[in-house]
Amino acid sequence: MYDLTGFQRDLLYVIAGLDEPHGLAIKEELEDYYEKEIHHGRLYPNLDTLVEKGLVEKGQRDRRTNYYTLTRRGQREIDARQEWEAQYVDV
User: Fold this and answer.
1) What is the DSSP string of 36-75?
2) CATH no. of 6-86
3) Where in the numbering of this chain does the Transcription regulator PadR N-terminal domain appear (predicted)?
4) Domain ranges in the chain?
C-alpha cells in the first residue's frame, strides 16, 4: 500500500466499508469526507489503478453501472496498514 496515493487509500477504505458500491456512491462518500466535489476525471482513473494493482475488482451491475469490491489482497493491504498505523497511533 506504500505506493498508493492518499486518495487511492481512501478509495480502498470506502470500498471496504460499503457493500459493492458503484462509482457514484463512492464519489458521494468521498465528497462528504473531503467537503468538496470529486470529479469523474479523478475518481475513475484512480479506481482503474486499484483494479490494475489487484486490490479491487470491478463488476458490472448493468450496462451503465459498475460496482467495486475489495479483493483478498486489498483486504490484506488494509489489515497490514492498520497494524502499521497502530504502532504509532494509540486508538
Assistant:
1) S---HHHHHHHHHHHHHTTSEEEEESSSS-EEEEE-HHHH
2) 1.10.10.10
3) 11-79
4) 6-86
Q: How many helices (H) and strands (E) does the chain have?
A: 4, 2
Task: Say if residues 1 and 9 touch (Cβ distance below 8 Å).
Answer: yes
Mean pLDDT of the chain: 95
| pLDDT tens for each residue of 3-28 | 999 999 999 999 999 999 999 999 99
Beta partners for residue 22, in sequence order? 67
Strand partners for 69: 57
Q: How many residues does the chain have?
A: 91
